[in-house]
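Try this one yourself first.
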């Protein structure tokens, strides 16, 4: 038997990582997998909220215009027992616009991955 082999020491491993390296790797991975998608979701939510607000204000103006138009042009719906007809017509227009708005939402875009940013 050769005397140069020491059986008390394990052979050195080439992929042996220290505890600090493993912790740093886990931190980097967690940041990459959580903060990146959250930044994309934040901008997605900000644009969605701004669009919803603008759409809401615009639809409110349209519906008030429809109500005033019906009240001004249909004289029998202007007062008395038939005054509710103008509001009923406005409600029907509201339901039509709401249905058209909801039908325009495409689910394919809701789960779409953001495009990678170009490197400058």
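Now uncover the answer:
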């Amino acid at each position: 038997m050769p005397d140069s082999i020491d059986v008390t020491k394990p052979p050195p491993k080439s992929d042996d990582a220290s505890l600090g390296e493993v912790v740093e790797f886990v931190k980097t991975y967690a940041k990459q997998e959580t903060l990146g998608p959250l930044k994309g979701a934040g901008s997605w939510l900000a644009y969605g909220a701004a669009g919803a607000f603008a759409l809401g204000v615009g639809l409110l103006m349209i519906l008030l215009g429809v109500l005033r138009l019906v009240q001004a042009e249909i004289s029998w719906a202007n007062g008395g027992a038939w005054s509710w007809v103008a509001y009923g017509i406005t409600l029907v227009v509201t339901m039509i616009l709401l249905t058209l708005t909801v039908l325009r939402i495409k689910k394919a875009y809701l789960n779409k991955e953001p495009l990678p940013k170009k490197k400058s």
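Discussion: The helical segments are 19-73, 84-103, 107-110. The mean pLDDT is 80.
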